Amino acid sequence: MKPKFVYHGSGIKIEGNLIPKKAKDLKKIPENMLNGVYASSLKKEAIIMGILKCKGVKSSSTHVKGKRKIEAIIYSGWPKQDYFYLYTFSSKKFKEIPKGSAQWVSFKTVKPIKIEKLPVRKYIHWVKKNEKQ
Q1: pTM to 2 decimal places
Q2: Backbone region of residue 100 per phi and psi (left: phi > 0; alpha: psi in -120 to 50; beta: other values)
Q3: What does residue 46 show for φ and ψ, rounded to 5 degrees?
Q4: Among 33, 29, 69, 27, which residue's Cα sits nearest to residue 48?
Q5: How far is residue 22 from each of residues 34, 97, 102, 124, measured CA to CA in Å?
Q6: Which of 1, 4, 28, 17 is nearest to 115 (CA)?
Q7: Is the pLDDT of residue 55 over 90?
């Protein structure tokens, strides 16, 4: 079932519309190599992605386990900014890729319904630091 909203996290504030582009940080599998605006049906995952996109984070990963559990690890670096941004979109222009996942993509330019400035300190406990740093 298509969610009403999908979410996108970013370390920077983007004014206006988000324009489709290739994801640079996703695994090199066909559905991630499309020109699109990537989003998640899981708000928590998008919040984590916003943290992982902060200045100072050099290497990280996320894994969705089951329907709601999300593991996030920073392998190198740590966020060096106080805030990140969460964008909320209507899911109308988004398509679930791959089927059965929380990942959604729009091949068209999309305008956020809402942009929230969130404090890193409030959500950083959702992210683990690699102990080998």
Answers
A1: 0.88
A2: left
A3: -65, -35
A4: 69
A5: 6, 14, 18, 27
A6: 17
A7: yes
